[in-house]
Structure formats: structure tokens, C-alpha cells
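Example record used in the benchmark description.
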Amino acid sequence: MRTIKALLLLALLLTATGCKRITAIFSGGRAGSEKLICHIDSETVIGQPVSSPDSRRVAYVAKDGAKRHVVVDGKEEKAYDFIDVTSLAFSPDSHRVAYVASIGGKQIVVVDGNEGKPYDDAQALLYSPDSRRMAYAAKVGEKWFVVVDGNPEKPYDIIAEPSMIFSPDSSRMAYLARGGDQWVAVVDGVAGKTYDDAQGLIFSPDSQHVAYAVNIDGKEVLLVDGKKQASYDYIGSHTTGDMNVLYSPDGKSMAYGAQIKDMWTVVVNGKQGKSYDAIGGLIFSPDSAQVAYATKTDDKWAAVAGAKEGKAYDGINRLHISPDGRRLAYSADAGEKQVLVVDGVEGKPYAAIVEASSVEQAHSCKGDICWDAFYIAKPFLFSADSKRAAYVAKVGEKRFNVSEKWSAVVDGKEEQAYDGIGGLIFSPDSRHTAYVAGAEAKQFVVVDSKEGKQYDGLVKGTTCTFDSSGKLHYLAKKNTSSDGKSYDIVFVEETIQ
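Model output (C-alpha cells):
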């Protein structure tokens, strides 16, 4: 599958002092207001504006002659020789902004306008979950090291950037690094024992424990706080090839896939389950009471939840468990079509079924072939009360035909088809649904199947957000020139009547 055509959700920004306010009444029983956030001239902007996670702020990189500078909420920051557009990021709480800039042949990380130390290279900016801390990888000469809260740690030949993580409570930081031919886990600045290989570094939910897998004499060994827990031919997932060790949400249980000779099993709290040709997609339920995963037997895949196997299909995509932990959903390949299976009941077959809330890279398998695809982080969206269900489906005949239409399917009812659909969500009280839809060159928000006002585009990284059960907001683009090279970004608030 492919990314949904031309759609990501709109985002909101912080109100700017003195901005002109425009009020409009929208159709479909929705009253709305717009507020101008900033004006964008594409001739001076590099890349696209980026929204904050809360959809209330915006930042972008702009040209300043031969220099580059970042503009945050309409305010210009210091100019530099170069700014890495891809590094520009808001913190999780939306209060902070960071990016990598170049000056005098060196690179620095700028956080809230404050410059860090200059290095030969800097990348992989990482905020802590509470947004108070920052880490990144930096290079001097041929050596790489991690900078935590402005302090450089021990240098290595390689820093495994995807392994860099803060603990859930933000108090701890860890990563995997290689020196020579040996890998090591570095936790809170302290290097552990070296191994031929290491992968899958994770913290427990209470931030007290660190788990990862290492290679010892050709075997995969699970370590928790540096102590050996189990040894298998491989620890992880057949479908992704990555270590897939999970803590339950309450932190009391651990589960992972394990290979024993030519077979695979799921191990929960040290107890092995049934053996299969392959396993993948392992998840815990939100209440930590059970695990679910996909299994392969011969050329067929089936979902397993609570040790109960479901119907066999040509392929199974990532599983999703409802908030109350009682319902299971996944999309399955059935011949040339895909079906959404909820509580063991198949829905209508479609050319494709995609992620309901956001599109991201995922992994799927069919027969002996596994592939990466940008879809299906969750093939399904449950409401907060677990009673309602929604997903996005391609209503045409061909799975990979990007010109065919998409429809939101809510509570089993197929809504109007559009060129693209993104960001499907339920309101906090589970009463309303909302998503962004596209028709030709326009986008608009659809609430409870009713279209809102049309706009000319969306802001990168934004989402349509419910502030309460009857109010939502997003960030829209309104062209101010016929060629679309200049446009206003407006903060849109709507009230659902």
C-alpha cells in the first residue's frame, strides 16, 4: 500500500497578538472561527512549515540572502550559514523548538534559541517525554558520542541512533554503541559489558529496568539490567527481523518472540507458548491482561489472542486491542481483497484497508514474502469507550492504484468516498468522528459525515484535535495568490452543534 494521497491533518497554532480575526459560519450544523497566524511566501521558505504536537504553534526555515533562519510563531530567530530543515522539531509538550544549524563549518544544536557546543556533525535530536531534556548524536573527527543535556559522553565508532531512548519518567537515558567490533549498552552514562551484537534496548514502564538482547556464542540472550534472563536461537520477530521484547503497560509482565531451531514461539513471563512457522505483531492489551500476535502455519496467517487462534488468512496486518482490553481487530488479506476482522467477524471486503489515525511504516506478510509498507500502524480505530469502530478503506478494485477513492467506514457504515482521507479520530466522549478529506485540490474536515469549509492545504505534522466533545481545532492553509506560492496559515476553531 501507499501513503494516503495528499492528506495529513491540519494543525492549530497559538494565537498571535494583534492578528486579524475572521468569523465564519460553517455548514453542517458547525459554527467556526478563523484567526490568522502568519503569512507564508514560498519564495523565501525552505521546506514546509511544521506544526507543534498540540497543533497550536508553527515553525519553518526561511531564506535570508545567503543565510537561513528559523521563524517560530512569526518571530525570526538568529540567522546561520545553513539549517537542517529535517531537524526542526517541537518538544512533546509543544513549548520548545530545536534544530541543527551550521556556522563556520561546524554544526550546533539550537534549543529555544540557545546554542550548544560546535561539532563536526550533529543529528538525531531527541527530547525526553517530559520535554525538559535533550539528547543528540555528535561527531568530532572520526568518533561519535551522545550529548545529553549539553554534556558529551564517551566517544565510540558508531552510535545506534534508533536505540537512543529516555526512560518513561525522563530521568534516565540509554543507547547502544560500537567500539571496534564490540557493542555495548550505555545507561545513564555508564557502559556495560561488551558483546558481538546488541539490539532492542527498552526501559520498563516504571523506568527502573533496562532490557536488550545480545549475541553470545551464536545465541540470542535476553538481558535485564545486565543479567541473563533467557537464551534462544533468536529473540524478536520473524516478520520484522527486529527484537520485539515488550513490557506490559503495568510493567508486571514481559513478552517476546523466540526462535527454537526452525520454529517460533511467544514467551510470556518466561513461559513458552505453542510453536509456529513464524510469529509477528506482538502486542499487550491496554489492561495488561493478555497478549495478541499473528502466527504463520504453512502458508497461512492467523491471529492469536488469549491463546485462542482465529481464522486463517493469506496475510495478517498489525493487531489492535480496544481500550477496555476486550475486543480485537486487525485487517487480513483474503485473496486480492482485505477485510477488517473485529471480534472474529469479517467486514466487507475492500481493495485496501489502512491505518485509521495516522500513516506510518509497518510490516506485513503473505505466504513466504514479507514487506515494508507505509500503512497499517493500526488497521482499526476503537472509540474511547470501546463500543464504536472506524477505519479507512479503498473502495476501488486495485490495492495499489493511487487514483482510486477512499472512504471512512464508521460502525460498519461506508461514508462518502474522497480522493484521500487522513487523521480519522473519535471525540473524547466517543459520540463524534472527524477526519480530513480531499476532493481535487481542496481539503476539508468531515465531522459525523458532514463536510466543513474547504481550504487549500494542510500543515505538516498537524492533527485535527477535539478540545472537548463539542469543539475541535486544526490549522489550514488559504492561498493568497493564484499560483499557490503565497498563503496564510489560519487557526480554525469549530463548535459542533
